[in-house]
Amino acid sequence: MMLFLSALLVGTIVGLLPGIGLFSAMVLLYPFLLPLPPIDILIFYAVMAGTSQFTGSITACVVGAAGEPSSIPATKEGPLLFARGLGPLAISTTAIGSFIGTIIVASILLLTIDHISAFVGNFYNNNIQTALFVTVMIIIVMAGSNKFIVNLLYAIIGASLANIGLQRYTSEPITFGISAFSNGIPFVALAIGLYSLPQVLRAFSLVDFKLLQSASNTTVSSIKESLIAVKENIAAALRGSAIGMFAGLVPGLTTILASNFSYIVEQFIRKRKQVYNENGDMACLISAETANNSGQLTSMLPLMIFGIPIVGSEVIVLDLIERGGTQVSLNTLLAGGMFQTVAMYFILGGFVSMFIAWQGAKLLTKIYKIPKNFLVTFLVIISSVSVYLFEADSNNQLFNCLCFATCLGFGYLLRKTDTSVILFSFLIYPFMEFSLVRFYAIHFS
């Protein structure tokens, strides 16, 4: 229960605070999650990710700031609906719509997971695994927020850093004569210093806390009017659920594609029927927000069936599980009803998150009433503790801290770019290389 409540809390914060995101949250919590068994790691991640999709729409609707990238459509429709006095209703109906999407997709997957697993097992081989790893890497480079050449350079840097300390097939590990490098670059020091802390601090500097606090006068809509609004837009919610279920499987984009594509489709339909409201359209908002929740669970299927992550935060999940001693392969994470357990917690998390999101702006203002300097100090302390606790039973704390300081310097210099590409490449490279070596051995040796 404590794990579940912790995931709800973290997911709420991730959704409400622009700039943190699932990737940064998993990085900051890495040392705390490392001792957990695979099922607990997966439950924590699923509940946290699902909750962040609910609460991410709150900040987007109130002030037009996306807590999560998948909430970008809400940054357009939400503030317009608030301007018309429909803000509280917009928040409550999107919360209910999101829960509908959660229920529909989770139920379908629970009923069909055995068939999906059997189907995958019939054609799964190293060729597919290799293709998936390479495809994910290409999409990250092509679709990243940086220019292509920058993403490509960052991917090369990440792969190069991953080679430090990595046991080669024909040679000794690369350590540059420094014994501390024999275990590789400490991931937490690299991730927090190079990416998470600089990006979060930059995001905080761009947030208008006074504007967010002004939402304290926002009321909460009644259950009756919210249910009526959902009934009127149930077709949009169902379309969003269907689109999100399939779009969530697209590597690298998942819920971002789900929400944005669903929004475009719904907007097209309503404009063709000449019922689209240029001053804030409730149906488009509900469709987009329903899609990102339904896409969240399906985005975990490649990880749980193939052992292949398709977004950056799932790479960290896989790394946590593998470091804990579990070698992930086909159906490893489906054994013993593991997926069914994760899906049930995902539904429960969605139910609780619906009510959290319902309180929307009230909850938002409570967090933003905390002084910005206090929040920044708290994040710096958590970051330092995470670095220190990583491999705390070893004698490498000083080395970790030095790496953290070095990476933080580079992270500050590169803070205006998306350095998560470096981390993604750093984590996925060993898995991709092993798959490519096996592919070569099978077909060319």
Q: Which whole number gives the mean pLDDT?
A: 79
Strand proportion: under 5%
Largest sheet report? none
* Low-pLDDT sequence parts: none
Broad shape: globular
| DSSP E strands, number | 0
Helical stretch tally:
21
- Determine the structural class based on helices, strands and strand pairing: mainly alpha
Distance between the termini: 51 Å
Number of domains: 1
Helix and strand pattern: HHHHHHHHHHHHHHHHHHHHH
C-alpha Rg, in Å?
22 Å
Helix content: over 70%
SSE inventory with pairings:
Elements: H1 2-16, H2 21-28, H3 30-33, H4 38-63, H5 72-83, H6 87-123, H7 126-143, H8 148-163, H9 187-206, H10 209-213, H11 223-232, H12 234-247, H13 254-272, H14 282-298, H15 301-305, H16 312-323, H17 338-358, H18 360-368, H19 372-389, H20 397-413, H21 420-444
Helix pairs in contact: 1-4, 2-9, 2-16, 4-5, 4-6, 4-14, 4-17, 5-6, 5-14, 6-11, 6-12, 6-14, 6-17, 7-8, 7-21, 8-21, 9-19, 9-20, 12-13, 12-14, 13-14, 16-21, 19-20
How would you describe this protein?
This protein has 445 residues and is mostly helical. The chain has one domain. It is 74% helix and 0% strand. The chain contains 21 helices and no strands. Helix 6 packs parallel to helix 12 and helix 13 packs antiparallel against helix 14. The longest helix is centred in the N-terminal third of the chain and has 37 residues. The mean pLDDT is 79.
